[in-house]
């Protein structure tokens, strides 16, 4: 039996409430009725647009576990921010007709936090841990037996007064989400029965997401407009929805209309300095910075210092799309602009 000396008191196993959300399907349906763009998430696999391969594996796993009356296997979802990992965790719980409890790894600081979370679960419930690569070692080790045998092995107290205690847990499903698969230790990774990558979305899929959400907020898009908004959404639903909100503000406040044409989109995005490739002023600043360095690779930290920005933000928000559209390369010696990226930034006059 693996015993982890974690100096946990008997008393307080509760994670601070503000860092934990408990969601069940009823709450999500209620959120949907509220017509709020931030909260309106798809609640069934069928409503979830795109990711066909992933959806079909999840469908089989969910149906099999319902058929066997067993909890779903633990699931690891990895991919860039905004692609739908949290949404999927909600809807998996919904499809399993159970609740989903949500925490982010950095909020699980002490062993008692994860113990509190696990003890608060009921049979079959889903625990979603976002940014799971940021769990500390003790927490991660406590999870091993919890995931594998639904059991917690604890050492209470210290030195001579220390005593071991095993607590049985209800059978639950852990869904972990990460943007950094490589930072997850092999023992933790191996305990997930299902491990799935979420890919960037195709333009047609984003267009469908835009149309669905625009209906919720009484906005009418013409076909060309929705397609062009999708085209500049960086393959990412969260960005599509963010742009949709900007377009809505411009349409309703400046143009006093609920009808969105391609022309209106151009004007709206131009007013927010977003160009026809979907790049904003930070992207252009990033590309200009590299362009000044004449084909010499630059390290991420130097770029962040030069731009006065946060390196993780550049790494996870700015760079993936610039790489995807062929403007940027990550080399062992640093970041390098491609010929295409150079051509683009040299031609730029900051207009849409
Ligand atoms: P992540 O957890 O990967 O950062 P989220 O699940 O928070 O991403 O998704 C960001 C936003 O995009 C949410 O508002 C969600 O409703 C929406 N979204 C993500 N994927 C889809 C999808 N496939 N279909 C419809 N909306 C989606």
Task: Please tell me about this protein's structure.
The chain has 352 residues and is an alpha/beta fold. It folds into 3 domains: 2-197, Rossmann fold, CATH 3.40.50; 203-271, Orthogonal Bundle (Helicase, Ruva Protein, domain 3); 281-346, Winged helix-like DNA-binding domain superfamily/Winged helix DNA-binding domain (Arc Repressor Mutant, subunit A, Orthogonal Bundle). It has 14 helices and 13 strands. It has helices at 25-33, 52-68, 85-95, 111-119, 137-149, 186-190, 203-216, 223-231, 237-254, 262-271, 281-291, 300-307, 311-324, 339-347, and strands spanning 4-8, 21-23, 75-78, 100-104, 126-130, 151-156, 163-168, 173-178, 194-197, 220-221, 259-260, 328-331, 334-337. Strands 2-4-5-8-3-9 form a 6-stranded mixed β-sheet. A 3-stranded mixed β-sheet has the order 1-6-7. A hairpin with a 2-residue loop joins strand 12 (328-331) and strand 13 (334-337). Helix 7 crosses helix 8, helix 7 crosses helix 9 and helix 9 (237-254) crosses helix 10 (262-271). The radius of gyration is 23 Å and the shape is globular. The N and C termini lie far apart (63 Å). It binds adenosine-5'-diphosphate. Adenosine-5'-diphosphate binds next to helix 3 and helix 9.
């Amino acid at each position: 039996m693996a015993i982890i000396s974690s100096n946990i008191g008997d008393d307080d196993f509760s994670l601070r409430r503000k860092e934990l959300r408990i969601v069940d399907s009823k709450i999500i349906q209620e959120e949907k009725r509220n017509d709020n763009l931030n909260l309106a998430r798809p609640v069934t696999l069928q409503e979830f647009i795109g990711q066909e391969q992933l959806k079909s594996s999840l469908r089989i796993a969910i149906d099999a576990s319902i058929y066997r009356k067993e909890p779903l296997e633990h699931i690891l979802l990895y991919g860039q921010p905004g692609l739908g990992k949290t949404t999927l965790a909600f809807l998996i719980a919904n499809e399993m007709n159970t609740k989903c409890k949500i925490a982010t790894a950095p909020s699980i600081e002490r062993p008692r936090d994860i113990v509190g979370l696990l003890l608060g679960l009921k049979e079959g419930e889903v625990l979603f841990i976002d940014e799971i690569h940021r769990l500390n070692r003790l927490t991660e080790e406590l999870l091993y037996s919890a995931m594998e045998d639904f059991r917690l092995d604890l050492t209470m107290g210290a030195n001579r007064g220390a005593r071991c205690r095993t607590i049985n847990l209800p059978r639950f499903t852990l869904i972990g989400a990460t943007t950094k698969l490589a930072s997850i230790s092999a023992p933790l990774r191996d305990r997930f029965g299902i491990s799935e990558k979420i890919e960037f979305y195709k333009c047609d899929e984003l267009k469908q997401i835009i149309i669905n959400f625009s209906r919720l907020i009484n906005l009418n898009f013409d076909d060309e407009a929705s397609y062009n908004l999708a085209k500049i959404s960086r393959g990412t639903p969260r960005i599509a929805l963010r742009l949709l909100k900007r377009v809505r503000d411009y349409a309703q406040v400046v143009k006093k209309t609920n009808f969105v044409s391609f022309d209106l989109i151009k004007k709206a995005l131009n007013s927010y300095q977003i160009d026809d490739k979907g790049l904003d002023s930070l992207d252009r600043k990033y590309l200009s910075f590299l362009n000044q360095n004449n084909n010499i690779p630059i390290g991420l930290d130097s770029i962040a210092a030069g731009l006065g920005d946060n390196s993780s933000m550049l790494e996870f928000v700015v760079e993936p799309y610039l790489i995807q559209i062929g403007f940027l390369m990550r080399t062992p010696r640093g970041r390098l602009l491609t010929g295409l990226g150079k051509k683009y930034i040299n031609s730029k006059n900051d207009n849409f």
